[in-house]
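Annex B. Sample input.
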Amino acid sequence: MADKLGIIALESAIKSGQKVDKILESWRGESFLIPCECPRFNSGEGKGIIKESVRDKDIYIMVDVCNNSLTYKMDGSLNRMSPDDNYQDLKRIIAACNGKASRITVIMPFLYESRQHRKTMRESLDCAVMLQELEAMGVHDIVTFDAHDPRMQNVVPLKGIENVSPALQFTQGLFTEYEDLKIDGEHLMFIAPDEGATERVVFLASLFGVNIGMFYKRRDYTTIVNGSNPIVAHDFCGSSVEGMDVIIIDDMIDSGGSMLDVARQLKDRGAKRIIIFATFGLFSRGFEKFDKAYEEGVFDKIFTTNLVYQKEEMLAKEYYFSINMERYIAAIIDTMNKGGSMSKLTKPAQRIKETVENYKKMSGIGD
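Annex B, continued. Sample output.
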């Protein structure tokens, strides 16, 4: 028998948490949302407060470390919440559980500090430190999506890290938006914008039955700009894309410079339509260059999920398609709470394959 379920959504994820709870309520007939807050003192210090008992409950804590739309007052001035602030509030809420929950699972779609996942010099290894902190605080499982480097789970080998692929939802969104795709090796290709995205691309391409291409990022390792080595050039490895629809797949769009450079190169090589999949759309430097690239015909559509905070400006863009993940999160919570297998949810290969085959039959093309 499953333990009594409880969901705690931090302010950074409260809208998503409420929707997930409504879905679970429609399945199970009751609400599971436990209210919480993280008020701040004038000095900027804070505390976590849980407003209902969590004793002997199977607790799922939802947090969006990327939500920078939130603010708090410090010394009379407004500060925007950074990933560090959101992560600190997560630890406060875990601490407020006082060890009374039967199990704690953290649902953190964007894995905190996942881009600082390896050391190349005398530097911190922030993602590893975070995982070990959560383990020490009594967290049993972490659910994340499309981790920048899934090998980070090796840091805490005795704890569960569920790295969920949103590939099924992207496939469904793609087929909702496009009715004329020809799914074969002569008309469609998946593209990895760098070597780090290759595994994602190979996974989907193998299920679609099409070829892949890859770009190699040449960096200047003698210089550091904004915390990383600047990219000198993108070199393409793959067959001709002339006249083909191409889908670029990556885990995130940050500033977007690399993604647009790759798209331009593909367009120069004769690609027909360029579609972009990115699990997390951060758009940290705004949309001006995306608007310009879209007007120039560099790309056709951008798909990202609602796993992290979405800017209102982004949602209004003609070229943007939002992938809703809330029902999937509800299914993950429901499955974990009942002790079910997660393999079909974390990497739903069979469902993707069936979706592709159904699309081919319905469209009557690409056979």
